[in-house]
Amino acid sequence: MSTIAIVGATGAVGQEMLECLDQRNFHFEKLVLLASARSAGKTIQFQGKELIIEELTKDSFQGIDIALFSAGGGISREFAPIAAAAGAVVIDNSSAFRMDADVPLIVPEINGELAKSTPRNIIANPNCTTIVSLMALAPLHRAFGLKAVIASSYQAVSGSGAQGIIELDEQAHAYAKGEPITPRIYSKQIFSNAIPLIGNVTENGYTDEEMKLTKEGAKILGMDSLKASITCVRVPVMRSHSVTMTAQFERPASVDAARAAIEAFDGVQVMDDPQNGVFPSPLDVTNGDDCMVGRIRPSLVLENALDLWVVGDQVRKGAALNAVQIAELLV
Amino acid sequence: MSTIAIVGATGAVGQEMLECLDQRNFHFEKLVLLASARSAGKTIQFQGKELIIEELTKDSFQGIDIALFSAGGGISREFAPIAAAAGAVVIDNSSAFRMDADVPLIVPEINGELAKSTPRNIIANPNCTTIVSLMALAPLHRAFGLKAVIASSYQAVSGSGAQGIIELDEQAHAYAKGEPITPRIYSKQIFSNAIPLIGNVTENGYTDEEMKLTKEGAKILGMDSLKASITCVRVPVMRSHSVTMTAQFERPASVDAARAAIEAFDGVQVMDDPQNGVFPSPLDVTNGDDCMVGRIRPSLVLENALDLWVVGDQVRKGAALNAVQIAELLV
Question: What CATH architecture applies to the domain A2-126+319-330?
Fold first, then answer.
């Protein structure tokens, strides 16, 4: 029986972590909810009890076994080492430590065995689009040997946190009332639009968000490097990400063998009979645990390659659920 | 001075054709508006005059010089040959004749010279996603020699006609009122969702909509064949299509040379300074004539290849404007 802390308990992911702990009957002795001074003192109902949110300080982690962080990179960089030094294993949802060599980057179904060795007491939770993409790619990599990926994302506003959801909600209401729409957190209107720029542009013209598939993808799959290009696009969808991929393999990959490989993998399902209208959409996976894959067909361009479409709940498998699954590996 | 007929004058594209004729000061002697018996007798205001919609019959085309068709493939298959036999040049927005060898398939900026020879008196207007994609690809093909394209689309509901726009509008209103959302023309909810299936599935697993880029693309670019894979996805955007592409070329293609080639081409603009927040979104091109290209960067996967993003108004350059531009080549 462990003592658990959630840092960023009032955020969209923090709230979903509570949901996941509850739904999965995660056994713990004590649950400590931490947030900024602004939220401290507020209460959250959880399993019939009223939990009071405490202010995050450097003394918050005494006696904590597992600390789930989801309060942004700055908070993680400052407080994760403090929590780790106090003896907690940190599961960090930010990008702060993901590429550090001595920090395992874990998707439990893919490389959960790495949770056994945490030299710095920190485990990183991968980027949400990377997790969703890899839930389709990992079984195919094992079956056929992944060579390269060309992808495009359809990312939900939940990826920007609660503020993203509020922004799309407000803009949909403004549209329905015939009122003018003014973007706040996004640089352009997101309702009835698509924004092909997520994150900061790096030297090669790709954004840091786009480079996560390349860098985190290679680390999670245990490859020295991964040839991957993605264009990350924000779309007016509340909370599930979709990704189109052309995945090229070392060995021939038939559609049937690909479906079988995905079906046999935990945490991902095949939903692929388009002639009968069967394909997954973001709403089909919203509030669900599993990612879903459809539209699997041979690439018309690359050899030994498949085109496909994968969807996953961004808040859940893309963040909170994956973190809670990592916590389950520790107890 | 010509006599013009519009078949499908009450549809979303028919209405936009009227807009384009007006805005571009298209000179004509007489304008005949044709539609189904259901719409016959209704009036449309145009350039200060009241035009009465006439019922489309086999006798509608006497004395017509140019007939713009946008009433679906069935109407085109039945009435385009009748109009052509009556002496009109048909510009057909449906897919009925696009791949016929003796029917030119025209994007005026790319292959407008083909309008000079119309053996069957029929010219086909290409698929909307194909037009938008090719407005970026054609200048790059001329500069570097196109070899292959891997693409994903973000297609607006206007591509389903007026009913698509009504469906997203109704669902946005229902969402704002907290009412249940029931899909009508789409198989799943489109508000806050993405639907990765447009058109009918063909033998190779791609839809007929997806194969249009491959087939129509090759014909318009004058290539024997085009290696192209696209996943076509409907997104909750009102009326502009976006496409991500990885385009591979015969010869090295630098980002600067690509930008210069696109800038020098009519009908398409570069909007590409993402570090300063400059990139095109669907709303940026809505109600505009030009397509816009951004996020141009070297592919991280394929050699001599660029990743990019192109947007274009589906109703306008994707349909009505392109048809009116073809008409301009005929007078």
Answer: 3-Layer(aba) Sandwich (3.40)
